[in-house]
Amino acid sequence: MEQLKGQTRLPKFAVPKRYDLSLKVDLSACTFTGSVQIDLRIVEETKFIVLNALELDINEVCFIDAQNQKHCSSHVVLVPEDEILVLVFDNELGVGDGILGIDFSAALNKHLKGFYKGYKKGSAVVRMLQDYLGDDIFRSQFMFSGLHGDSERQWIVPINLRVSSYEQRSNFLLETKQGNFDLSELLHASDKNQEQCNNHLWVKVNMEQAGFYRVKYDDELASRLRKAVENNWLSASDKKLGWEPIFGESHLSALARGEVLMALATLGHKKTQEAALERFQVFLADRDTPLLSSDTRRAAYVTVMRKSSIENRSGFDALLNVYQEADVVQERTRVLRSLASSPDPNLVVESLNLLLSGEIREQDAIYVLTGISLEGREAAWGWFKENWDLILKKWGDGMLLTHFIRDMILPVSY
């Protein structure tokens, strides 16, 4: 144990590859709880796993190895001066991949950089106010408890919107609970052009997500906005980012590329899906092709599944082949997150059946569950009820059962 302390870097006998983190914050009590699933590669046999952590209360720890054997930590040691967490196991963990699950809780305070220690302009002033006023007064003044009633405490919301073009814009502050805005102020079409104006009318609120709020469009406005997207009347992030990495681009641009293409593929954008299918075929012939980078690969996988069905399953079978041949955990994870995204409920059920067949590691089941398509939710719920006894037997002793319950019940409960 002592040899693990005082080191500038974590030991190399256990290497974290991916973190799946969930947090639940209670701002009124200034506490939070959370769980994390860590894809871990054991490089050398060891009784210890060392991670970076600070000021956490560890509630439960278990490690599931490549043979699906469950190992519970016998001793948990937090070393504040080194900001590390040492997990001790009675038996040595063998070489190979596995999943480490940890449940934890803690108090919110000014030392927790991940929550509200930012470096944007003004954040230092907010922290200074909190330190000066104290936690209780600060939360009450800034409504962290969510209380309503006093008009003087009403949030002032910055509104920016565009109507039919980027030149027709308006920016104003909403200082009351409700307000009205007359769109005609931004429309100056003549009677001759009125019909054309109506056909091209769209409204986009909170352009570039400058304000911290969500916009709910009614059916007509949502339809007009979708038409604007389909007809390329809006600026297109997918065209700006493209499919291939750009030399010198930021890490955020690379992440945005994958997210934008994923959204377009899922929502059925024709040109995106056509490009994805072409690049996927090239990828099948050459796994090292630059036409389908790791950032964009899942968008292609989702497109393949969106075009797959029980009657037309060639894409599904090809994707399964990619999974079986992949020797990298991240690649297998990308495939599993896409398998259940078909619009055909029967193919969704077939994907879920793989979880019971032994072809997919038990600890990897969570990835398939998170990718269930909107069209397949009811079928997945029926599969869950029908196979409950098998699921309980297979995953009932670990934390993975909570993922089954959450990912199956929440989508059909709204």
TrEMBL record:
Transmembrane segments: none annotated. Residues 15-120 form the Aminopeptidase N-like N-terminal domain. GO terms for cellular component: cytoplasm; extracellular space; membrane. PANTHER family: AMINOPEPTIDASE, PROTEASE M1 ZINC METALLOPROTEASE. It comes from Dillenia turbinata. It comes from the Eukaryota. Pfam families: ERAP1_C, Peptidase_M1_N. GO terms for biological process: peptide catabolic process; proteolysis. The keyword Hydrolase applies. Belongs to the peptidase M1 family. Residues 239-408 form the ERAP1-like C-terminal domain. This is Aminopeptidase N-like, N-terminal domain. InterPro entries: Aminopeptidase_N-like_N, Aminopeptidase_N-like_N_sf, ERAP1-like_C_dom, Peptidase_M1_aminopeptidases. Keywords: Aminopeptidase, Hydrolase, Protease. GO terms for molecular function: metalloaminopeptidase activity; peptide binding; zinc ion binding.
